[in-house]
Structures are given as C-alpha cells and as structure tokens.
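Reopening this ticket.

The earlier resolution said the output was attached, but the attachment link was broken on my side. Pasting everything inline this time so it's all in one place.
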Amino acid sequence: MSNDAVETQVIADIIKNYRVVAVVGLSSDPARPSYQVAEYLQAHGYRIIPVNPGCQEILGEKCYSSLKEIPFPVEVVDIFRKVAAIPAIVEEAIQIGAKAVWMQLELVEPESAQKAREAGLQVVMDRCLKVEHARMFRG
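Inline output:
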C-alpha cells in the first residue's frame, strides 16, 4: 500500500472511530482557524476539549492547561501550536493514552510523529481535520 493510501486510511480511521478531541492551542477568537475547526467538529457530534491555559471556557467546554489535566480519556490530540511545541505535546499525548495525534496544516514534526507511532498512536501531519472530515462526509 502506498504512503498516500496508508495516510488516507489513517485519516478515515481517526474520523470514523474517535469522538473525543483535545484541541491544543484552541483560541477563543472565532476568527482563528482553531476555533473554526473545533466549532465544526462540535457541530458534527465530536466532544471538543479545549487545551489553552489562558482561558476558562471555549465553545461551552471547560479549558484545561495541559493534556495531563484532563480527567477523562482523550482519543485525538489535535495540535494548533508552533512546531517547537509539538515534541512536548506528543509526549503528553502518549502519557495520557491518546489514540491519535493530528498536526494541523503546515505542522510537520517527523521525529515526534515517529515517537507517537512507536507508542501505538495513529499520526496525521499537515492536514486539517475539518477539511478531511468535510471531504469524507461532503460537509
């Protein structure tokens, strides 16, 4: 199977099988892409968990300062932070037992991706979860 086919399968598995998404770097500003993606996912039946130490609540959900603070299982860690922050976020995702790490558009960190895969997590890089969901389900 080609790399594109493998990635397409991973994307489909994540979108179809996981419903609890921690959005790391979720902004409270409706104009920001992180807010728009989270709002879209929430409207499509996903539970959104904001991870932003600067906010109390976003989209009606309690904010957490880090993944480790979330007191229930998280399936997908959707990252909206700078590449330099990704290694620590992936480490936390592994520690909390997440099933997948999703790095949004323009976010690529191969070493962290490899570490996550070795720990058994599915990984997507440089893709938008909203765009991929809309493509799969035609919006």
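Reporter confirms the inline version is readable. The chain has one domain: 3-137. The chain has a mean pLDDT of 95.
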